[in-house]
Amino acid sequence: MISEIERLREEGREPARRIYHNMLRTLRESAGKEEIGFEEVTPVFLGKYEHWLLGKRLSWNTVSTYMRALRAGYNRGMKGRPGYVTGLFDKVYTGTRSDVKRAVDARTVGRMIRMSGCPDESASAKAVDWFVLMFMLRGIPFVDLAHLRRSNLDKGVLTYCRHKTGQEVSISVPREAMEIINRRMVENCHPSYLLPILGQPRTRKRHTKKALTPYQEYQYALRNLNRWLERVSVDLRLGGRLSSYTARHTWATIAFHQETPVGVISRGLGHSSVKVTETYLKPFGDREVDRTNRKILNYVLNAV
Length: 304
Description:
Blueprint: H1 2-10, H2 14-31, H3 43-55, H4 60-78, H5 106-115, H6 123-136, H7 142-146, E1 153-154, E2 157-161, E3 168-172, H8 175-185, H9 214-235, H10 246-257, H11 262-269, H12 274-303
Antiparallel strand pairs: 1-2, 2-3
Domain Tyr recombinase: 139-282
Family: Belongs to the 'phage' integrase family.
Domain Phage integrase SAM-like: 5-79
């Protein structure tokens, strides 16, 4: 597993490296030792690891992420060798839960859009602008928004490749979004980035002592965004928490309630397959089916 972590480091795949690193760290903590052989990984061992992770109040999706990383490492290390167990991970959770509410309603988005009209350079105003841009640009992920280049924008069309999948996405930029982009470009100090998110001078002393790696700089920007969005959600009395994921899930949810075909939503989000989109929309799909079932029952009962 350590060699896998090093391979990911050499390939510059920092997010994946961090997942494997954290998985191995928690695995060692749960087992109470540093060295764990693949032959020790049994259904009972995995069950105890899952229980330990949940006891640390990690989400089911985080548990699934660690289990899938461990499964991938196990398959690479053991497949085709004596002792390999098929279906070893069948009894632990490796799926994706979609029951966590990450979307807000259209009224909240409207309030955010009205707030974004202020020519303010404060961190909270920028957080609102980035949220609104993410929504207006078809739920673009923050990692893609932050890394947009000036060259990605041509004649009102954004064309870029998603960081997560490498899939090319093309977006006709709405007039309202272009107004925000033009306003924020004025304060941009970087010659290549489209928006003043990355590559900007740092004013905090602890960031002038040591240069940040590109990944560290992005993580710093992401933490700042989420911190300020949380404050905005308190100011708006949303009763929920805004985050970098909210704009994307909200765009998908509103599109779904507007009866947009799932295939169109999937393409709009730049998903690699419709299955990924269905994970976003599953809770709403279940409710639609329940409502349809009620309508059918009412129709039949009234026909008697």
